[in-house]
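Usage

Read records sequentially. Each one opens with the input sequence:
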Amino acid sequence: MYKMTLEQFAFTSMGPSKMTHLYLQNSIIYKLNGPIVGANTVRYLDLSNNFCNFISDYFFDGLKNLSYLDLSQNVLGKVLEDDNNGNIFRNLVNLTILNLRSNRIFRLPPAIFRNLNQLKTIDISDNTLREFSIPLENMKRLKRLNLFNNQLSFLNKETRNAIDSLSRKKKIYLNVTGNRFTCVCEQLEFLRWMAQSKHVKFMQFDDYLCTFRNSFKANFSDIDNLVQVMEKHCASYMVTIVIMTSLIFITLTTTFGRILYRYRWKLRYMYYVAREKYRDNVQRPDNTGNSSYYFDAFVSYADDDRRFVIELVKRLEGNHNLNLCIHHRDFIPGTGIADNITNAIHNSRRTVAIMTSHFLDSYWCMFELNMGRMEAIYSRNGENVLILVVLEKLAIAKLPFSFMDLTESRSYLEFPENGDDDDEVSAFHSKLVATLKCRECDFITLSLNTSA
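and closes with the structure output:
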């Protein structure tokens, strides 16, 4: 089979050209390179059934007065799909009828018909279009649009609005038979439009079908009833979606909230430690291995117990050469309370908590207690750095559940009830000092509880 390419061709005549029709169908013309010149009088051009797969951007340059163009039954899908700037048909400003039937067209770029404002009939039937997004607003004379036997599932809102606008002045004949319409909630607006369009004549309307998700096919002969069924279905569907979305949101929020609450102290501890670590004006020692700390202990206490703490600190620092950190003396002015607390705990070998009812009622005291616990778990390889000094026996009973392991293991010191007994007070101080100075051992192994 001979494959022909139509190159540049010129029509000449002795006088003015009277040629109005040009028939080149069924000629196996694979490529239309052109241009064809000397054919300004041609109004009708038939290039159908040529197996043509290429048209150059300048092929129609000499056919500016063309009003009818038949390109059906070719293979122009690829070349038209790639014509994003609409150059192939740009000079056919007088074209009124365009036939692109059976061209294996999968997609048409929006600008493909940009200058074809005189079009009355567009035939793109028997192709594989999955969407039709060609602007129609400028085609004021458009009467017929044939999209028969494509792969369309709906017409988008812009196309529907353009068709409605054009149909206000004249009836529009639209053929979308043989497409893959679906009866789903997402296409309800399209189905409503088809049912309510008064000036749009849908060709072969009774043959239209749409498919439900269960593969049931509904006929458009009673489209009003079909739309009502769809509206009821979609209303309940939307309620279901809203309920399910709300339940999922509540479940995720609750789960996320519980996770945050469960790990709230860990997250806060990691946040403050990370902020201190990367702060330029703070130099943090390496707290791993046998490296030293700034303080032997950080003493956590409520302001109501300050007098007891001051006397205790004076004795421990004066008589036993311990370096202790207390907030009213050693916290850095201008630094946030939480930052000061975290920094103090992180740079102290131990954290001593003076347990009283005032301590348990204080937000910042409980913050210090929890930060000390997080320090033990996440920075000291599980070593317990907390020492509980019980001034009030009722305080230990009110201790949060997460600290009950400390009480069950009896790893706390009770200050003598008889504070005037020098021997008992001296024994208390000795055990506390021994615990604070013990660098390698785990202080829980010491018999700290004076009642034991």
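Summary fields computed downstream for this record:
- The longest helix spans residues 223-262.
- The CA atoms of residues 308 and 354 lie 9 Å apart.
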